[in-house]
Amino acid sequence: MKSFTTFLLFISSFLSCTSTDKNKEKIVTFEDLLNTDSIARVDSMKWYYYAMNAKGRALFYDTIKQLGDTADPLECDAELTGFMQRNKDTSFYIFSFKKQNCRFRYVDQVIYISGMKIYKEQIIPIINHVVMEYESNIDSTNAVLKNSETIFTNYLKRHKGKIAPWLKNEAIRRKIL
After folding, report:
1. What is the tally of structural domains in the chain?
2. Which residues contact 58 (CB under 8 A, 6 or more apart)?
């Protein structure tokens, strides 16, 4: 948990300012991302965030009751809460689940996906707050994402509980529901 907090603090330091790298390329801020980045690309990453966290339990801290709380990730809205562009080919996107009056902590499962990395237009999951270096074997990443999506779509078709509005609309758009 301490490493996750440190990671988020590190990312947040990049969200509030714009700087340049050695080649004088503009580093994109979170606000720039919301104005210029492809909504479809962020939606794709959000879809994989749901797919890879669907079978866990989202853990929250209720700020009013001062207690821990849990929820099915499929019932929660997922939102983009962090962004960092390392260079022109590499960006990190951090997502969180959202629940009223609660602060998101993490998803309780063996492999928790905290966000996605984009490397040369390839989506790579950030697993347990660690970025796996799939750049040398991008076929492995594609296989993991495809397998996760197949399992998720079958799980979503059989799911009897509530589904977050964005996720339900996206599943309908993808002709799953």
Report:
1. 1
2. 70, 71, 72, 73, 76, 97, 99, 104, 107, 108
